[in-house]
Amino acid sequence: MALWQSRWTKSLNKDVEDFTFSLSFDKRLWKADLVGTCAHLLTLKKIGMFNSNEMQILRDAILDLNSSILTDPNIISDAEDIHTFIEEKLTQKIGDIGKKIHTGRSRNDQVAIDFRLYLREEVCEISSLLIEFRAVLLSLAKEHIDTVMPGYTHLQHAQPVTLGHYFLAYDSMFERDLERLGDLYKRLDVMPLGSGALAGSSIPLDREYTAKLLKFSKISQNSMDAVSDRDFALEFLFFASLTYLHLSRLAEEIILWSSQEFSFLTLPEEYSTGSSMMPHKRNPDVAELTRGKVGKIIGNLMDLFITLKALPLSYNRDIQEDKPLVFSAVDELKLAFKVWIGFLPKIEFHKENLKRFAEDSFLLATDLAEYLVLKGVPFREAHKIIGDLVRYCEEKKKNFNELKIDEWKTFSPFFEEDVFDLLSPEKSVNAKKTFGSPNPKINLKVLETKLSSLESLKEEWEERRKNLPTLEELLSKFL
Question: What is the pTM of this model?
Answer without folding.
Answer: 0.94
